[in-house]
Protein 1
Amino acid sequence: MIRVLGIVGSPRVGGNTEQLVAEALRVAAEEGAETELLRLADKEVKPCDACLSCRETGECHIEDDFRPIFEKMVEADGIILASPVYFGSATPQIMALIDRAGYVSGGRGRVFENKVGGALVVARRAGQNFTFAQLLFFFLQQGMIVPGSTYWNIAFGREKGEVTKDEEGMNTARNFAKKMVWLIRKLKTREEP
């Protein structure tokens, strides 16, 4: 079984970022993956306080919703991190998650190593490429494998639903999802005896 987790870093439920992730997960499911969409909008993930205790314990001491989200990330074969662009960069919600996930992963022996991951980004006009790079840095620093698509995984939209009118952006997300499942399947086949 292939598991793909899509994490929406938008504070808006049902917004453009969530719609783009939902479309990618729909395609991943068509390709045979078990999928889950997780919204940070209804979760509390506080920023990392850089205490570094997780390097010793493998756990984060901060009490909030981080731990169950992190465990879902560990269980997934593929992780999609998605963010809208509000002020030229990724949302504080998604950055808090990946800062802490990166540290805890290090404390547990790099648990994301060789998993497949990728980013999806939505903006009204600009900031997509910078935000896309911000999210990609997490995957690359964690030793994950990032599949490509037909363009950068970005789409345009401001008001709810506008992203669905960006056909190129939607197709890029669909192609990315297909490539993600294909790559996970190839990697799993290599692992089998």
Note: The chain is about 45% helix and 15% strand.
Protein 2
Amino acid sequence: MTAIASRAQLRISFLRYALVTVPAILLLGTISGLLSNSGYENGWFAALDKPSFMPPGWAFPVAWTLLYIGLGLSLAMILHARGARGRALALALFFAQLALNYAWSPLFFAAHKVDLAFLVIVAMIVLAAATALLFRRIRPVAALLLLPYLAWLCFAAALNFEIGRLNPGAETLAPAGSSADIPL
């Protein structure tokens, strides 16, 4: 029997991928942020001078949730495109940039490596742009879903750069409220 899958079967197949990729990407991103104590609750980060264009704290979890959903859907589209030319390289680049994404919060918020985190985010932008170009050849909508992510990465890189500029020696700053003094 040589039947071609119906549209409904193809949609169900895509949904199966998305039901794995979206929660997985969201979960791993959330874990990365939680383990590195990312955000305004981090004493070290709270003590830093911030650029004037820094969004309020609530904007980051909202933005990252939406961006991770887009990444998960984009990935599901490419995984669903079995047999597509260039798929293996596109997936390799996607996972490389995603690994850098998950490494950024621990570098910045936990290790306080502002300059190294900036280099990581620049590499992330390059890999995500290359991923989008390769995704476009396979599934144009998958590439479109990466555009808000790329825009946010550029914005985040600008924030990272400005925080580094405004806070030279930031990695040596102690978190607010902590002290090495012995109480008397």
Note: The first helix runs from residue 7 to 35.
Protein 3
Amino acid sequence: MKFHSMKTSWRVAIAIVMIGFNVSIPRLALAASASAIDRDAKAALAKLYKKSAAAKTLGDKAVGVLIFPSIVKGGFIIAGQFGDGALQKKGKTVAYYRSLAASYGFQAGAQAFSYVLFFMDEDSLRYLDKSEGFELGTGPSLVVLDAGFGKNLSSTTLQKGVYAFIFGQEGLMGGVGIQGTKITKINPNP
């Protein structure tokens, strides 16, 4: 009998956490101002460049860099992830975007991470602007880099398309991915 009541208590606790998460997340996402996104994007990019010389090499060669400083992912069976970011050209912010994704399956928990997309050619960058919501994994080629590949990256191995770095994972949720993520242009508060 004790096991059944513990199991019920656990389910109630998860339901309460999920309700709180679902209620608070939209407000957090809408509360970001342009200056806050810029500040966080600058700090996230500096953190990535400090940890990875390959990322710095990509940044130096890229025609555009889209920085998502904080993607929040959470859920139980059905999960969602979101975050706001800044597109920079030559170190200056030129537009703002929102990253959204949903998934289902055996998953539970909450997690935060950052990711940066390096657009290596004008065609890839134009696709971001022309699409009514750029979905990662469709359109220009996307290469998600890990530490092993990054060590072999040089200015002579760079290709066209989009390169992604995922970093700064925190929290308790298995699996971080950006394939299938939809990126749409936004107009944040000033």
Note: Residues 2-186 form one domain.
